[in-house]
Amino acid sequence: MYSEKVLEHFRKPSNMGKIKNASGIGKVGNIVCGDVMWLYIKVGENSKGEEVIKDIKWQTFGCVAALATSSVVSELAKGMTIENALELSNEKIVKELNGLPPVKIHCSLLAVDALHEAIYDYLEKHNRPIPEKLAKKHERIQKELKEIEKRYKDFLELEKRLEK
User: Fold this and answer.
1) Which one is catalytic: 88, 107, 141, 148?
2) Hey, how many other C-beta atoms are within 10 angstroms of the C-beta on 95?
3) Could you say which of 5, 8, 16, 33 is catalytic?
4) How does pLDDT run across 107-121, given as a tens digit for each residue?
5) What is the pTM of this model?
6) Is 63 a catalytic residue?
C-alpha cells in the first residue's frame, strides 16, 4: 500500500518535463521492472558563488513509485549545491515519501542514480574532476544500461522518439 504522500506525487508530480540545453542529463533504467528515468539539470551559481542545481526536470516511464520518487528527488535537489546533491540518498527519498513498499525501494535508488548520472554528465562536459565514488557508480549504471538495451530493444525506440 502506498502512503498518501506517494499518491500525491503520483497525481501531481513536481518538475516533470525536459530541459533544453541541460547542463547535465542522467539516464537510468531497471533491468528487472523495466522502469526508465531521464533527469535533466541546469547548473548555475548561488549568491556565494557555489554551483547549484538551478532547475531540474525529469521524464519517467514506470510505476507509481517510480514517478513519485522522480518527483521527490527533483524537489529535494533543486537549489542544492552539486556536493550536497551527491550526498542525497535513497533513504532520504523514502523518508520524504513516508515510506515505500519493500518491493518498490529500488525506485528510490533509481531516482538517486538518475540525479547522480546528471551530475556526472555535467562534470564530464565541463572537464571537471569526478569523485571516485561517482565514477564507480557511473560504471555500474552504464553496465546496467547496456544490459537493458540488449534485453529491451523498445527502450532504444522510446529514447529516439523522446529526442525528437
Assistant:
1) 107
2) 13
3) 33
4) 898 999 999 999 999
5) 0.88
6) no
